[in-house]
Amino acid sequence: xxxxxxxxxxxxxxxxxxxxxxxxxxxxxxxxxxxxxxxxxxxxxxxxxxxxxxxxxxxxxxxxxxxxxxxxxxxxxxxxxxxxxxxxxxxxxxxxxxxxxxxxxxxxxxxxxxxxxxxxxxxxxxxxxxxxxxxxxxxxxxxxxxxxxxxxxxxxxxxxxxxxxxxxxxxxxxxxxxxxxxxxxxxxxxxxxxxxxxxxxxxxxxxxxxxxxxxxxxx
Length: 219
Known about the structure:
The protein has helices spanning about 25-35, 90-105, 105-110, 125-150, 155-175, 185-190; strands spanning about 1-10, 15-20, 40-45, 60-70, 75-90, 195-200, 210-215. By secondary structure, it is α+β, with helices and mostly antiparallel strands. A hairpin with a 4-residue loop joins strand 4 (about 60-70) and strand 5 (about 75-90).
C-alpha cells in the first residue's frame, strides 16, 4: 500500500489528510477507463517510420501496409508505409489517476469528491456527428452555388468529402467501442482510496507546506 499526505484549508483551519491506496489496483482502473471511455479518432497516413512515437496504450486496430514508394535520404533509402489506427483520447479521469499514482498529485481527490464534474463537450460521439452535419451542409452549399454561376470549387468539395469520410470512420469506431461515461468509475475509485484525517490546526500554526507530500511507506 502507498500513502500520500496532503493539506487542505477548511475555513480558518489547515487539515492534514492521509490517502492510502494500492497503485496496481488504480492502474488497472485507469486502463479500463481508457478502454471503455476514451473517444476514438481514426488516423491514416503515409510514413517511412511506421510506429515511431506512438503511445500503444492509446492505439487500437493498428495496421500498416507497404505502398511501394520509397523515401530517399543521404545515407539510406526507406520504404514508405500507410499506417491506419484508432487513437484513443485519454479521458480526463484517466489522466488524473496517472498523475495521482506517479506524482502524488491530489487533483484526483478534488475531482472525485467535487460537487460538480465537468464533461468535455468534445468527448462524445455527438461531437463528431455534429461536425459531419456541418460539413455536409458546406458540400451542399458549394453544389447549390454551382447551379447559379456554373462553377464548382472541386478542390474544396473533394477536401470536404474526404473529411466527411474520415469523421464517419470516427463515428463507426466509437459506436463499436460502446463507450461509457467516465464518471461511472468514480465510486469504484473512491472505494480504492482510504482517506483519514491526520491533524487539524488553526491557520498560522502549521509551517507553510506543499500541497502534498509523497510518503515511501511499506504495508
